């Protein structure tokens, strides 16, 4: 019976261990707690949740709801425990975090094929089947080892990304596409604002509710880049000389706008655009409210909200295959936020896929071909597809393949995406006999 080393006892590491163990593999699960804690962790239990206790919506009109159904089809341990530890939270799945961590720990401990070692791993043997699932706060020693494996610029240490919107939801009648100083073809969609709109926008931006950063995050993140709301607080016209500068831009009426937000393609298909220079610490609901004040984004659908936090993650498109294995060292897999996914359930999914695919690789079974009809496949393909400005991604309908039919009603359209994803995942499970 082959043995697999799993490094990290968070959601992804526990899920990967379970998927391997249930398929008959011996797992050596390494967790450095309680001998050593990251700046954000305090519990000795596995699967400790340190931020919000919400695992997001269960509704099929949301991508997070569809993802949970896919996880259920694939027999996710983490999801099963979360449902047993649920606390009232409307249509969202929220958990009693202490009960959840305790129960995950107990479930992992009682698996006969899993042995838990409470020690820090600082070296990686590329010849040993290994899943690295050490999360966004990977220790400095292991980060250095991973950096050596990846080479130059392979590892990022904080996540500072702008919001991303669905291209189809941009009001193009309120945009123009000329390039700055009319040099070459425009690679941007320009979203103009008049004087009154701009000053109202700045007022709301400065006064919007923000995410509270951990003390250990503040210095490192703010040295790297400036949140747009902090920039705006330095003076009402600061943004007009920064990311919203109109200099060199002429609108469709031949005039220079008062201020201009530029949108840049997020992917080759051009169905997602990011808000250039809008790294932010606003809470998600405030991002939606404030950024929708920009006329072209009044009805924008946000595929991903902006984030700025301590987050060790690799340049996945350069280094990982769609099964989360390394291109250069096929015995090494990554899982969790370090692999380029974002969110509790997304991290769980990556652990599930890494464990499942590692098991199939060692058993010499055919590689699973996930596709963009499922949230699972879309995330697997996102983290492994060419992307020069790669940032971690969460589950969203914007990364799925388009529907075959046009559905105008937004709610019905989202539900159709979910139904299709669930149906496709059921087919994949049966085709590859994923219970074994």
Architecture overview:
With 436 residues, this protein is of the alpha/beta class. Helix 1 (11-21) runs parallel beside helix 11, helix 2 runs parallel beside helix 13 and helix 3 packs across helix 4. The strands form 4 sheets. It has a 5-stranded parallel β-sheet, with helices on one face. It has a 5-stranded antiparallel β-sheet with strand order 10-11-12-9-13. A 3-stranded antiparallel β-sheet has the order 3-5-4. Strand 11 and strand 12 (272-275) form a beta hairpin. The chain has helices at 11-21, 63-73, 77-84, 97-109, 140-150, 195-207, 215-224, 228-233, 284-291, 316-319, 344-362, 375-384, 410-432; strands at residues 3-7, 26-30, 54-57, 86-87, 92-95, 114-117, 130-132, 155-161, 164-166, 188-193, 259-265, 272-275, 302-304, 307-314, 332-334. It is built from 13 helices and 15 strands. 34% of the residues lie in helices and 16% in strands. The protein has 2 domains: 3-159 and 309-432, FAD/NAD(P)-binding domain; 164-305, Elongation Factor Tu (Ef-tu), domain 3 (Beta Barrel).
Task: Please write out the topology.
Blueprint: E1 3-7, H1 11-21, E2 26-30, E3 54-57, H2 63-73, H3 77-84, E4 86-87, E5 92-95, H4 97-109, E6 114-117, E7 130-132, H5 140-150, E8 155-161, E9 164-166, E10 188-193, H6 195-207, H7 215-224, H8 228-233, E11 259-265, E12 272-275, H9 284-291, E13 302-304, E14 307-314, H10 316-319, E15 332-334, H11 344-362, H12 375-384, H13 410-432
Parallel strand pairs: 1-2, 1-7, 2-6, 7-15
Antiparallel strand pairs: 3-5, 4-5, 8-14, 9-12, 9-13, 10-11, 11-12
Helix pairs in contact: 1-11, 2-11, 2-13, 3-4
């Amino acid at each position: 019976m082959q043995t697999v080393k799993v490094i990290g006892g968070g959601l992804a590491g526990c899920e990967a261990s379970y998927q391997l163990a249930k398929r008959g593999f011996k797992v050596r699960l390494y967790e450095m707690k309680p001998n050593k804690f990251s700046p954000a962790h305090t519990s000795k239990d596995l699967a400790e949740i340190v931020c919000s206790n919400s695992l997001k919506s269960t509704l099929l009109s949301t991508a997070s709801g569809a993802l949970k159904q896919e996880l259920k089809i694939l027999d996710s341990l983490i999801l099963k425990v979360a449902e047993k530890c649920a606390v009232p939270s409307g249509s969202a799945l929220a958990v009693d975090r202490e009960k959840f961590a305790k129960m995950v720990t107990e479930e992992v401990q009682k698996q006969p094929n899993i042995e838990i070692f409470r020690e820090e791993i600082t070296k990686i043997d590329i010849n040993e089947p290994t899943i690295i699932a050490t999360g966004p706060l990977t220790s400095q020693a292991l980060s250095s080892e991973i950096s050596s494996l990846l080479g130059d610029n392979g590892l990022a240490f904080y996540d500072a990304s702008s919001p991303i919107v669905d291209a189809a939801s941009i009001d193009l009648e309120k945009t123009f596409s000329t390039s700055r100083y009319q040099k070459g073809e425009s690679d941007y969609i320009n979203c103009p604002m008049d004087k009154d709109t701009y000053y109202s926008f700045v007022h709301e931006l400065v006064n919007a509710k923000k995410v509270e950063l951990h003390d250990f995050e503040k210095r490192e993140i703010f040295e790297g880049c400036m949140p747009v709301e902090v920039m705006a607080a330095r003076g009402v016209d600061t943004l007009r000389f920064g990311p919203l500068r109109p200099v060199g831009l002429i609108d469709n009426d031949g005039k220079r706008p008062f201020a201009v937000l530029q949108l840049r393609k997020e992917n080759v298909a051009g169905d997602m655009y990011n808000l250039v220079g809008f790294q932010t610490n606003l809470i998600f609901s405030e991002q939606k409210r404030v950024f929708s004040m920009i006329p072209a984004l009044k009805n924008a659908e946000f595929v991903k909200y902006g984030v700025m936090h301590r987050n060790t993650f690799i340049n996945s498109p350069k280094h990982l295959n769609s099964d989360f294995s390394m291109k250069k060292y096929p015995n090494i897999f990554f899982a969790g936020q370090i692999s380029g996914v974002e969110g509790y359930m997304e991290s769980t999914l990556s652990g599930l896929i890494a464990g499942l695919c590692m098991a199939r690789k060692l058993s010499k079974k055919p590689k699973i071909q996930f596709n963009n009809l499922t949230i699972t496949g879309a995330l697997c393909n996102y983290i492994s597809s060419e992307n020069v400005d790669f940032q971690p991604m969460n589950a969203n309908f914007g990364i799925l393949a388009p529907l075959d039919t046009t559905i105008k009603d937004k709610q019905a359209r989202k539900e159709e995406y979910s139904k299709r994803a669930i149906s496709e995942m059921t087919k994949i499970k049966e085709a590859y006999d994923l219970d074994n």
